[in-house]
Write a structure and sequence with these properties.
alpha/beta, 2-enoyl-CoA Hydratase, Chain A, domain 1, Rossmann fold, N-(1-d-carboxylethyl)-l-norvaline Dehydrogenase, domain 2, eight-stranded mixed beta sheet, six-stranded mixed beta sheet, 50% helix, NAD, NAD+ binding, oxidoreductase, 3-hydroxyacyl-CoA dehydrogenase, lipid degradation
């Protein structure tokens, strides 16, 4: 007899099944399946059964499927995946077919398989607490809900309402779940939850309408209608067009989900369940699914769990933070720090400048209040934590000071010398820089072991990644404190070693440089943008360069040359760099903020600058280069740069590289990160393609030695 599903029958013949699997959560694995099967066997033999309550002894209801099993599935094993999926579905279907009504008493998160189990019950009641989340987020892992989630949710609330929950993996709280029709009632706490569930069973005895699933009742109609209903074909067509615009055909999971949703509108319920299983089994062995599971679950958990944090037991909490500079980055840092309860001092050259930073936070908090993500009282308290100053003495006693001024090493050195003594004993100085070497900036510090880089991404209050950079003398204690602050600020921290541009900045610049090189060679700019977007980047590389600004990119190059960090003759794309200098110096095209770059901008939108083609386009060159070569030139550059960063020790782990690429610099999610892309492409095939590109377009495409090393080891980048 299983001991992981606690079976309790009361005097009213109501059985409460409390799931309590070994381990921290209830996961749908072999043990769970065996326990559920045994429980159903017993319930189906239970005399005078009045009803069943399914609940959890864990903080979560059910966490979902075992991703270790899913990522292990290989091409050719689809039939086995299908059979297993159908078997799990048959158990959920048995819950629906019990002789007595069933209630899911949801005490914590019910995501993925957890919600699919709950949807199999006749009634769903949830504790009204912030820990309760409901949703089907499988699409974010490159999968689809395989336990009946697509079929049941579409049948329950209709195609139109179910679409964003299935396509975007939206998670909702208990109150929203009630208003959207996911659940039937709310309860104040665990005691009230079970009492409400029992009362519902008493009021919905076997044979009553509530004791059966809607789709099992005669005359059932899906809300909003089936495929032949008026207007439904138009809804489907619009959904398909919107989906392709969003994914560009690069993510199979959303397409599979939409296909299954349409089938739900066409066929009977049980046939739809079978179709869903078939779609799931075809999807789970796809490389995109494996890449996304690896990145968004396993490696994300590694990074968030502190794999790169030194093994120092004491956790550090920042109480007072100094922010030097109230510009775009400083104001965002101040806002997120105040929001999590940290006292913040913004020091700038004038109170007026610092006040602009506080106004940014005030506006940001107001938006959060309007969206229901923050109360007005919490916003007021957070704003009150931000103090404005022009006096360095106001920084006295700061646990952390983050310098967030523009990229000028002399200015940064001056600030270190002026304000470093204001730090509390053991306090940390951090520079928010995207390109300047931390070791060089730390040269002005009297305590370089307490000096570190913290590269935030703009806008700070919305971008989740934080790149922590260790200088040559940064201590483990300082790194641990910076990591803890990142978590305190609710950021995803990756840790890298010092180098010009670190990891993210030097990598994001490579497709931009390659795009400039392609234009200089004579390739049409519009074609470059279209091919670039087909890779899966949010915007084309030329549009991205305009946002970054050609002037800033050239300023960084010139600053690194002046500091001896790079040599002009080592430029991998000299024609592209010369093109940018020409556009800036001769045509005033310095980027969007400077009035235009590759694009010209107007109230009606943007278009490639009309004179660009006349200046650079060469029809013979353009036609000689294939779309495949353009695509690989743009994509392989950041992949190769990521490999170089790993080889040179800038990246400390593959997980940091993949998560940094996806969350910081827009690596397409289907790749699983630029390092994971090599695994999926195949290391030998990748090396061969690099050789072909290098022979045609230059040594910058030569595969780094680390690829040959991995091939010799018979290993991947893990």
């Amino acid at each position: 007899m299983n001991t992981e599903f606690i079976y309790q029958k009361d005097a009213d013949n109501i059985v409460t099944v409390t799931m309590d699997m070994n381990g921290p959560v209830n996961a749908i694995n072999d043990g769970f399946i065996a326990a559920l099967k045994e429980t159903l066997d017993r319930l189906e033999q239970e005399p005078d059964l009045a009803g069943v309550i399914i609940t959890s002894a864990k903080k979560t209801f059910v966490a979902g499927g075992d991703l270790n099993e899913l990522i292990a599935a290989q091409p050719g094993q689809e039939e086995g995946v299908f059979t297993r999926t159908q078997m799990i579905k048959s158990l959920f279907r048995r819950i629906e077919k019990l002789s007595a009504p069933s209630v899911a008493a949801i005490n914590g998160a019910a995501l993925g398989g957890g919600l699919e189990l709950a949807l199999s019950c006749n009634c769903r009641i949830a504790v009204n607490h912030r820990s309760v989340q409901l949703g089907l987020p499988e699409v974010g892992l490159g999968l689809l809900p395989g336990g009946g989630g697509i079929v049941r949710l579409t049948s329950l609330i209709g195609f139109q309402k179910a679409f964003p929950y299935l396509m975007d993996g939206k998670k909702i709280n208990a109150e929203k779940a009630l208003s959207e029709g996911f659940i039937h009632a709310l309860a104040a706490d665990q005691t009230a939850l079970l009492a409400t569930a029992k009362n519902w069973i008493i009021n919905n005895a076997a044979g009553s309408e509530g004791a059966s699933q809607p789709w099992d009742r005669k005359g059932f109609r899906i809300p909003g209608g089936n495929e032949s209903s008026p207007g439904m074909s138009q809804q489907i067509a619009m959904a398909s067009a919107a989906l392709f615009k969003k994914t560009r055909g690069l993510l199979p999971a959303p397409e599979f989900i939409l296909n299954t949703m349409v089938e739900v509108l066409r066929v009977d319920f049980d046939t739809a369940l079978t179709i869903e299983s078939r779609q799931f089994s075809q999807l789970v062995t796809r490389p995109e699914a494996k890449n996304m599971i690896n990145a968004f679950f396993f490696q994300m958990n590694q990074v968030a769990g502190g794999k790169s944090r030194p093994k120092i037991a004491e956790k550090h909490t920042v109480k007072k933070l100094g922010v030097l500079g109230g510009g775009m980055m400083g104001q965002g840092i101040a806002m997120v720090a105040a929001q999590v309860g940290i006292e913040v001092v913004i020091k700038d050259v004038s109170i007026e400048s610092a006040a602009k930073a506080k106004a940014y936070a005030e506006n940001g908090f107001a938006k959060l209040v309007a969206k229901g993500r923050m109360t007005a009282e919490d916003a007021s308290r957070a704003l009150a934590r931000i103090k404005l100053s022009v006096d360095v003495a106001d920084l006295q006693g700061c646990d952390f000071i983050i310098e967030a001024v523009f990229e000028n090493i002399e200015l940064k050195h001056a600030l270190v010398k002026e304000a470093e003594t204001m730090l509390a004993d053991g306090g940390v100085w951090a520079s928010n820089t995207s390109t300047l070497p931390i070791t060089r900036i730390a040269a002005a510090s009297s305590k370089p072991e307490n000096f570190i880089g913290m590269h935030f991404f703009s806008p700070v209050d919305r971008m989740p990644l934080l790149e922590i950079i260790c200088g040559e003398q940064t201590s483990d204690e300082t790194l641990a404190k910076a990591f803890d602050l990142a978590k305190q600020l609710r950021k995803m921290p990756i840790v890298v070693n010092d180098a010009p541009g670190f990891y993210t900045s030097r990598t994001i610049s490579t497709p931009i440089q390659e795009a400039a090189q392609l234009i200089a060679e004579g390739v049409d700019a519009v074609r470059i943008e279209n091919v670039g977007k087909s890779v899966g980047w949010p915007v084309g590389p030329l549009a991205l360069q305009d946002e970054v600004s050609q002037k800033l990119s050239l300023d960084i190059i010139d600053a690194q040359i002046a500091m001896g960090l790079r040599k002009p003759e080592d430029d991998p794309t000299p024609q592209g760099t010369a093109l940018m200098r020409c556009l800036l110096n001769e045509h005033g095209r310095g980027g969007r903020v400077h009035g235009g770059g590759y694009y010209e901008y107007s109230e009606s939108g943007k278009a490639i600058w009309s004179k660009l083609k006349a200046l650079y386009f060469k029809e013979g060159v353009d036609s000689a280069i294939s779309d495949a070569d353009i695509r690989d030139r743009l994509l392989f550059r950041p992949v190769i740069e990521s490999l170089v960063c790993l080889q040179d020790g800038v990246l400390r782990s593959v997980a940091d590289g993949n998560i940094g690429a996806i969350m910081g610099i827009g690596a397409p999610s289907w790749t699983g990160g630029y390092l994971q892309f090599v695994n999926t492409y195949g290391l030998e095939r990748f090396a061969e393609r690099c050789t072909t590109l290098a022979e045609a377009y230059g040594e910058r495409f030569r595969a780094p030695a680390i690829v040959a090393d991995k091939i010799a080891e018979g290993a991947n980048f893990n």
